[in-house]
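For this section, I looked closely at the sequence of one protein beside the tokens encoding its backbone, which the following lines show:
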Amino acid sequence: MQVTSTHTEAADTTVADTAADTTAQRAIQIDQLAQKLHQERLQAEQRKPPEQRTNPTVLWRQAHREARTQVRNEVIRARAKEATRKAATNVYADVRAAVHRNRQQLAPWLLAAPYAATGEAAHLLATYGSGSPLGMSAVLAATSAGASYAAWRRRLASRIPTAFRAKAQAGLGGLCGWTAAMPLVPPSGQAGMWLSLIGGTAYLGLSWWRKHDHPIPLADDVAAVELPAVDVPSPASGEDDDTTHIRVHGIIQAWHGRLARKGGPIEGSTLTYVGSNTSVDEYEIQLDRDGSITREHLRQKQMHARIALATGVLENKLSFEDTDDPARIIMRHLVKEPSTSYDGPIVLCDGKPIHSRWEITPGSTVDIVYGHYLDGRGHAAYRVIDAGSVNSMFVLGGTGSGKTKLLECLAIGLRFIGAVIWYIDGQGGASSAALDDHAHRRFQFSKDDPGDDPGEDQTDQLATMVNAAMQARNRELRERRELRNRYTYDPARPPIIVLLEEAHEVFCKKQAGGGTYGEVFGQFGQQTRKLGVGFVAASQDFDLTSTFGGSARLRSALLAGSNFAAMRLPDKSRIGMLPASTPALDTIPPKGYGFSPFSARESALWRTANLDASGREPGEWMADHDPAELDAHVADAIGHSRPTAPAAGSTGAGGAGASGADGPPRVVRFPAAAATTVDELTDGQRRALAALGGDAKSPTTLAELLGITRQGAAKHLDALVAKRRAVKLEDGRYMAR
């Protein structure tokens, strides 16, 4: 503290001394000038008569006042001159800095500048001089052509990237012609010539400006940050070292000057350049282990936006991936759209690509690749078959995110492996024409109430067929012990995959008898996996009530295989059930980008294949592969699965007794009831069963209908469940079988 006080006192003393010296000097100047003026006035007074002379004291005061005014004006003029000099110096420095910072963008204009100056000088000489315009044009043509050739050989050829050389050569040829034509143009044609020069230079420079990002303008305190040299690897095709270096160095400088500085939002962190591929720059963020910022903070939308603002990069061009080290995060900058051309489905059997469904061996894992990570290290895939089961998948994405294209990509792969595809669209078939036309079975969907027009909605029929297929496969597992109570892939016993577009509309649709179809599909639960049945659901919501129809069991079944694709979704209110580690979905670029929150690389951004760029329609890709045929067990069960409305003593679907029912089919919600006769029920249980009817009811509602206590109603309901005459739903209500 004493040292600080001493330094402060010394600094104050120095300032005071300097001010005192300045004041003393000014006082001396005023006195010297006043004495001079006083002498001049005395001499002038001596030439006057004695009675007209002014008192010497008054003369001194006048001289002193005039001297003080002159000295003050001189100081003001000196200060104004110094301020003008500093302003001119600053403007000159700013212009130089701006030109240096924009040298990449100014390159086309700098190339055209000497030709423009030469051509204008030749025009003025031809107009107001005595030379021949034609001769001057010939001389300029030869001179400019020779100078251009020499400049190209010595300097320009080595500095201009290959992608721009053709336009640069065309520009040089045009400039030579423009320069040679200027002596021949009359003064009235000058405006047209200059417009042609400016327009031609701008047109030829468009591709150059598109390729060269503008450097990030940095404040003085940021620009002064000392950084280690940035090691830029060999440039990607179409890009040079200088462009990459400017972009990378600008981002690193902005990071350390604006984010990592003392008091900054990510104080104490460091940003290191790792490398680039054709579309992505990769950096490593090292957080301060003693600081308060963790990688959880970087996942927050607000921090994401601050990083984008500080580095001058669009928010949806940045992505972050965690590593095994909690203080180390990978940041990726999407420089340009990656090449995602589609050449056909990529299917992996035990991690190795295959070219035919017949190469899939029993007991192996089967993956369908639907995206590639932007860093080029790996892919995102749907694990269709794994450990004796068929997995389901969920795709989350808003309008324009690309989820329909992802479904089409998956459908092509499913067709490749010989899976049977059943398709239902919550938009009534407006989402994908390819799936609508080429799925093995398409089910119509209508948002109207079940009783309005059953012929326009086949959701009930879909659930019935899934139930029938499961029962057939279940019987087969009991009959064939060699299957070991699990699903083993066989082209003659293909998996059944139900694709649901806008699945929230399907799952939340009300049944005629009460409840939602989400509860229906949820009752199938985990049994679908070992029976070779899977669901691929795409939706704009991820909420228990508004997405899965209130069925937690359905949600668990869809996520059991950890197959989840999260694409762009601006509405945060729809993603409350996602893991906390999921990156902000409103920062994902649109049209095919996404994360896989339940995978090993949950925060790595991937891009789906661009089916539109393949030159073929998705339906054509699907048609390249022969459709699968259902095995006899399932085909026979589906052919006889036309259940009637379930009553209290219903035996369920899939049996022969239901095969002759007329009218639209109704889904059998639950497995067949046990063969319990009415005589085995008590009077109270019979009355409770009759009161349940076809709707789901809570114990409180049933107690009010029967005029008994809630505890008594709950006791009757539990007894009916034990005797397999009723079932308890997930929301606590009960329903007759």
